[in-house]
Specification:
There is one protein chain. This protein is an alpha/beta fold and about 160 residues long. The chain contains 7 helices and 5 strands. It is globular. The termini are far apart.
């Protein structure tokens, strides 16, 4: 199910040499959607931010070499998704971002097959993504305490 289908789990998979899949439970998608709606007032951004964060988790775990072809799930929003990925990676992700292309994958691709089998619960995902994982990417928090301010050890 797509990110906005909050009654269904979402699965992303990669299958270019290494096979890796991630699953975000429907319940966590609803909680994230609620955060974007009530706390941030950015309902529409929820879809692209969460999709980008899942893509970041998938790529970071699978460490694919060379080209990364991402299915055109959200036509017209590819530049926003790439921008989100740039923000998540920082300077370390320039090469990865350059290798990302958006294209129609099709139902016959190995990645689609893996994602479909995970979604149908025929195989387990490589990783279950939690709301905490997504929040730590979208809303990274720098911990600042007294010791960070004056250079002393905290108690």
């Amino acid at each position: 199910g797509k990110i906005e289908q909050t009654n269904k789990d979402t699965v992303l998979a990669i299958a270019n040499g290494k096979i890796f899949s991630i699953l975000l439970k429907a319940r966590d998608k609803r909680l994230l959607q609620d955060i974007f709606r009530t706390v941030l007032g950015k309902q529409r951004q929820y879809i692209y931010e969460v999709f980008s964060a899942m893509l970041y988790i998938l790529i970071s775990n699978a460490s694919p070499k060379g080209r990364i072809i991402v299915d055109k799930e959200y036509p017209g929003h590819e530049s926003l998704i790439k921008l989100n990925l740039k923000n998540f990676y920082g300077d370390s992700g320039k090469e990865i971002i350059r290798n990302i292309e958006f294209n129609l994958i099709g139902k016959l691709s190995p990645a689609h097959d893996v994602a479909s089998r995970v979604f149908q619960k025929k195989i387990k995902p490589s990783k279950i993504v939690t709301i905490k994982d997504i929040k730590s990417i979208i809303f990274p928090q720098k911990k600042i305490g007294y010791s960070d301010i004056n250079g002393t050890e905290g108690s």
